[in-house]
Amino acid sequence: MTERSSVRQAEKSDNDSFFCRVYDVTCMIPRGRITSYGAIARYLGTAGAARMVGWALNSSHSSERFIPAHRVVNRNGMLTGKHHFGNASTMQQLLENEGFTVIDDTVLEFGERFWDPSLEL
DNA sequence: GGTGTGACAATGG
DNA sequence: GCCATTGCCACAC
Prior knowledge:
By secondary structure, the chain is mainly alpha-helical. It has one domain (about 20-120): Orthogonal Bundle (Arc Repressor Mutant, subunit A). It is built from 7 helices and 4 strands. It has helices spanning about 5-10, 20-30, 35-45, 50-60, 90-100, 110-115, 115-120, and strands spanning about 35, 70-75, 100-105, 105. Strands 1-2 form a two-stranded parallel sheet. Strands 3-4 form a two-stranded antiparallel sheet. The chain is globular. The two termini are about 25 Å apart.
């Protein structure tokens, strides 16, 4: 009996998918904040599935809800998935609009504006 | 049902 | 200190 099973039983909805959780957490990211794939994965209980988080966001376009995936970067603060926004500059523009400074596909404010769902949520 | 993959993360040389 | 390799876990084929 794991924590996950209880949650899964409580939800018992289509949201039981790992993807939906990633979408939910990503939407919870406060404006002006930023997090990493590993932080989200760890919050979900799958610390080693950081890659899955990225993959889930890759399918975020399939979600009816807008997913601020631009607030999610790798541990280095690098915009590794900017190419998946359609235009490579879209993700950077969104981050700059949030008040971030993006240089060389890397968020300089990453260390300061880092938001950990496991700590904040 | 097994194999491959994937927007990462951590470790080793 | 930088580059290369391995591990990880859930989904698609």
